[in-house]
Amino acid sequence: MMKCKFLEHGLAIGYNQIVKPCCAWTADENYQKKFHISKIDIREFHSYKEIVDTKNKLANNEWPDACVRCRNIEQQDRQDSIRLNGAQAYSNFTDNEITLELRPGNTCNFACQTCWPAASSRVKQYYTKLNLIKDTEINENITDFQYLVELNDRIKTVILLGGEPFYDKNCLKFLKFAETNLTANIIIFTNGSCVDYDFIEKYKGKLTLVFSLDAIGTPAEYVRNGTVWPEVLNNYSKCKNYKNVEQRVNVTTSPYNYHLLEELVDFLIEDWPSVVTFAGAYQAEMLEQSIPLQFRGQLISSLDRTVEKLSNTLIEEGQRQNAINAIASISNNLKTQIFDKDLFENWKSLTLSLDKIKNQKPDEFVSMMLSVEVN
User: Is 369 helix (H, G, I), strand (E, B) or coil?
Assistant: First the structure.
């Protein structure tokens, strides 16, 4: 019997103001119309038919359509799906306690290669200039958080996303609200470029900073455009000194950094954070099928070495196994999945266009892949 803690305790609210149980939930048009925050009683969210029906399907070991992202991860024998992470992170939640995921705005000072327009204002600008999307407005004006007051005593954890939470004006307004209204554990996903140390020192509750690190050193400045690595490294190191801060790392894997994961893991192994998660980019052209066959051997060797290093390192067993499973899954996919020419061409075209408009150059390995002509 499958269970999901988010169907009992989760609230995820983006700047479109649609309420979902978690960020991985796939919401169709009908769901979005019904579950706008202005149309529901947020206190009774987990009693709505759509949520109860989903819970019952999982209990019967059926994957609901809304849970496709977790299904795809778990069918690879990976343990880092949102559902499984929630089972561990929220195992001690009581009946009424809530984990709130909030994305008040998308203003960001980075334009990461794997990011998408709705999650970054800079990526949106580039995609618009390249005519990849229409110049449509995104509702970025969620500045009133008073509706959370009535849930104050139930909110145990807040996950704050952007944009960049320490850069986006609406996220910063939420942090001001939290300063005087909340004592929940706030988990902040950050690119590490700018950290509000004044808030860290004033906040009464626990803070968890999740640094998005897809590479280290100079390569990071390409993969996560906008990075100044010495600044990110300084903030990453400095935050370890705060007693009220737990440090985590999230790694987005893609053709841009498969060859860089060994070096990144070497860096992390020196002082492994409390939690490190690995997740593939959401775009199909940024997954393993896009890698031409002639480049796979080098990548597989590096990834298999990384698995071996993780196997022999002294980190918490669950963390070690999750990292091994994630890296081994990429290696296995490169060994077994058929090369998809169309996905490769889509990735190549997008990358060349983005690099030109960003005025940046990839490292030698990515450059070699971009130079390949596939018949």
Answer: helix
